[in-house]
Design brief:
This protein is of the alpha/beta class and 602 residues long. Helix content is 23%, strand content 19%. It has 14 helices and 28 strands. Strands 1, 2, 3, 11, 12, 15, 16 and 28 form an 8-stranded mixed β-sheet that branches. Helix 1 (43-52) packs parallel to helix 14 (581-599) and helix 3 (147-157) crosses helix 14 (581-599). It is globular. Bound molecules: flavin-adenine dinucleotide and 2-acetamido-2-deoxy-beta-D-glucopyranose (7 copies). One 2-acetamido-2-deoxy-beta-D-glucopyranose is lined by residues 9, 11-12, 380-381, 384-385. It holds the Pfam family GMC_oxred_C. Belongs to the GMC oxidoreductase family. Keywords: FAD, Flavoprotein, Glycoprotein, Oxidoreductase, Signal. Residues 453-588 form the Glucose-methanol-choline oxidoreductase C-terminal domain.
Length: 602
């Protein structure tokens, strides 16, 4: 919306020579059957595809509805944040009317290409707090998910690399906590912002509420610090660039099929009384969201397992279309229920976001190029020629995490006292999905996001058409508890903006924020301008073995079903108070290890 999309610039970007990336079903070698079929090539699916195929004797098919990521400029240059806009590489979903947003529906982007949302996201990389992982261990009854036991999987995912400008990173992170040998490249910002020193001053002046946090990936998140981002110095690092890099695509036992929209799973029989689901039905007809197609459906079967990794929206939709879900909802649409499980699609949770904008006294903001097509073309040429300049970074300059002392509207939702209730993000320009970009001016945005909401929503089927989007109701700010957190967060950033550290820089709040002068007007501003930070999760939650609720066991295996596992954002029992991509990569790393262990794969 505010960032123009530059996918047709004719950039010369290296197109890898690839051996086993197929675009049409009839290109797949005919006689092949697969041990594992993975649905969806996002954070979860790419890890599974890579790790399971590292044994040459194990055959893997990865099905992805979208196209390849190769050569997609918007998914390569970090500062082209196409993720905020509805683009060619998106599912183009919208939510149901949100009561917490005064009845507004919002756009609900989800990546639709290799890498999934890791190819379109804003690249903040946070592990979540140690308390968060320890709570996952407790909620699932599996100590394998604890912070301590997850360390090795975190290090397998992460490859810390120097920043684009090669600056000295002393006092910007703790290298002792990081790996330089994992898969996804992680780096600190590689181009300075005009307010970097003011951020550090803020942590001194307001040290009680906003202490400096050297490394928010240490397990303890509170405070303000430098953002770690999934950027390989100057270019996006994603599930696709890392786990589906050319050397992995070259594996003869890994087949990746793009443009393959999975329409449902098919029951293949019964194993010791449980329905087995080892067949996947898909089509390579390229149907837009909301369209229809009677084009040919292809069925492919797995010898061992089907692994769903279509994300928090896609996975719930596919399960329901396949007869796994709440009987009442399925019967109403004429779908035969094979397993009645009311937890499928329930408890959808997301992080509400609000862009708080300020006029600033600087000419050095990214507004110069978001408002000027000539200048962005020049900056792209600089990026292309030197791999330097303002486009090497995401729009996120610094991150901060905080708690409220108490919340009158309910019991604490966080995993513990070092886990935040909300997040603030500093951005060096006008960054909003709900307010039109002005034609001139210089701005700073301090985003506030609620990271431990109490509200729960749902994903339900709108129809039996697999190309329709489901009804997505994240129930944003749907509780007084969550609204209290957002009001507290906005109040907190107004205090930051008024600190001495920002004297001479912040001129005044943007008109909508300036008008929020009373509690009622603040609430109206929040309801009118909030949106999502794009973190839907929890729609097919893990629960302990034998639990009466939940969709999967602690290893991702679907309860009371044979041959079917889920490894993506949907299995999280609670949304992490963090940016979730790293968390889902880690689910993938441990999930792959559990699959290999179960089948004796080395
Ligand atoms: C705009 C945006 C910004 C974000 N910013 C950040 C950030 O800064 N930091 C962060 O940590 N997280 C961020 N996220 C969230 C993060 O990217 C996701 O939480 C994460 O990628 C989810 O992983 P996943 O595997 O569950 O799903 P995804 O990564 O979304 O992958 C799901 C894949 O399944 C495919 N699929 C779905 N349905 C079907 C079907 N029927 N047939 C075949 N394939 C299908 C999709 O096309 C997609 O490729 C952002 C997300 C978005 C959209
Ligand atoms: C980086 O900065 C630190 C602290 O200022 C200093 O001790 C160190 O020598 C610097 N490293 C390099 C390579 O210049
Ligand atoms: C989303 O919208 C874009 C722009 O209109 C379009 O190119 C794309 O095909 C759409 N994607 C889907 C899955 O409908
Ligand atoms: C939603 O999650 C809670 C735990 O957070 C659980 O008790 C409840 O059963 C879930 N609801 C459904 C329908 O699964
Ligand atoms: C920004 O540019 C304008 C026009 O060139 C100039 O008048 C102004 O002083 C500049 N402001 C700053 C803070 O550099
Ligand atoms: C846009 O950028 C170009 C190239 O730097 C510059 O010459 C021009 O003055 C800018 N236009 C505006 C309106 O600032
Ligand atoms: C990018 O650089 C290559 C040479 O490395 C050049 O051929 C190409 O024209 C450049 N593209 C742009 C848009 O600058
Ligand atoms: C699974 O089956 C057991 C035994 O029949 C039953 O008690 C349990 O409720 C079922 N769980 C789900 C999620 O269907």
């Amino acid at each position: 919306m505010h960032f123009i999309s530059y996918s047709v610039l004719g950039l010369t970007l290296p197109l890898a020579c690839i051996a086993t990336l197929y675009e049409r079903a009839d290109q797949l070698p005919a006689s092949t059957s697969y041990d594992f079929i993975i649905v969806g090539a996002g954070a979860g699916g790419t890890v599974l595809a890579n790790r399971l195929s590292d044994n040459p004797g194990t055959t893997v098919l990865l099905l992805e509805a979208g196209p390849s990521n190769l050569g997609v400029t918007d998914a390569i240059i970090p500062m082209l944040p196409q993720g905020l806009a509805v683009t060619t590489y998106d599912w183009n979903y919208t939510t149901t009317p949100q009561s917490g947003f005064a009845g507004r529906s919002i756009e609900y982007p989800r990546g639709r290409l290799l890498g999934g949302s890791t190819s379109t996201n804003t690249m903040a990389y946070t592990r979540a707090s140690s308390e968060e992982w320890d709570r996952y261990a407790k909620l699932t009854g599996d100590s394998g998910w604890s912070w301590k036991n997850m360390q090795k999987y975190m290090l397998m995912n992460e490859k810390f690399v120097p920043s684009a400008d090669g600056h000295n990173r002393t006092n910007q992170y703790n290298p002792a906590l990081h790996s330089t040998t994992g898969m996804v490249s992680i780096s600190l910002p590689g181009y300075p912002h005009p307010f970097d020193s003011r951020i550090i001053e803020t942590t001194k002046e307001l040290s009680k509420d906003w202490p400096f946090n050297l490394d928010m990936n240490s397990g303890s998140m509170l405070g303000i610090g430098w953002p770690q981002q999934s950027i390989d110095a100057f270019a996006r690092s994603s599930g696709a660039t890392a786990y589906l890099a050319p050397q992995y695509l070259a594996r003869k036992n890994l087949h990746v099929l793009t443009n393959a929209h999975v329409t449902r799973l098919i029951q293949t029989g019964t194993d010791s009384g449980k329905p087995a689901f080892r067949s996947v039905e898909y089509t390579t007809a390229d149907v837009p969201t909301g369209g229809t197609s009677t084009g040919p459906r292809i069925t492919v079967s797995a010898k061992k397992e089907v692994i769903l990794a279509a994300g928090a929206i896609g996975t719930a939709q596919i399960l329901k279309l396949s007869g796994i879900g709440p009987q009442k909802e399925l019967s109403a649409l004429g779908i035969k229920t094979i397993l009645n499980n009311p937890s499928v699609g329930a408890n959808l949770t997301d992080h509400p976001l609000l862009s708080n904008i300020f006029y600033v006294n600087s000419n050095d903001t990214f507004d110069t190029f978001t408002m000027n097509g000539t200048l962005i073309a020049e900056d792209i040429a600089v990026w292309n020629a030197t791999h330097q300049g303002p486009l090497v970074d995401s729009p996120l300059a610094h991150l901060g995490w905080a708690r409220v002392p108490s919340n009158p509207y309910g019991a604490d939702t966080t995993a513990g006292p070092t886990t935040p209730h909300y997040e603030i993000l500093f951005s060096n320009g006008f960054l909003s999905s709900t307010t039109p970009l002005p034609s001139s001016g210089h701005f700073m945005t301090i985003v506030t996001a609620i990271t431990s909401p109490a509200a729960r929503g749902s994903v339900t089927l709108k129809s039996t058409n697999p190309f329709d989007q489901p009804n997505i109701d994240p129930n944003m700010l749907g509780t007084d508890y969550d609204m209290y957190l957002m009001e507290s967060a906005v109040t907190a950033i107004l205090k930051i903006a008024a600190a001495n550290a920002w004297k001479g820089y912040i001129i005044k709040p943007f008109e909508d924020l300036a008008a929020a002068t009373t509690p009622a007007k603040l609430k109206a501003y929040i309801q009118a301008k909030s949106a999502t930070i794009f973190h839907p999760a929890c729609t097919a939650a893990m629960s302990p073995k034998g639990a009466s609720w939940g969709v999967t066991d602690p290893d991702g295996v679907v309860k009371n079903i044979s041959g079917l596992r889920i490894i993506d954002a949907s299995i999280l029992p609670v949304i992490p108070s963090a940016h979730p991509q790293a968390v889902i990569y880690f689910l993938g790393e441990r999930g792959a290890a559990l699959v290999k262990q179960q089948y004796g794969i080395n």
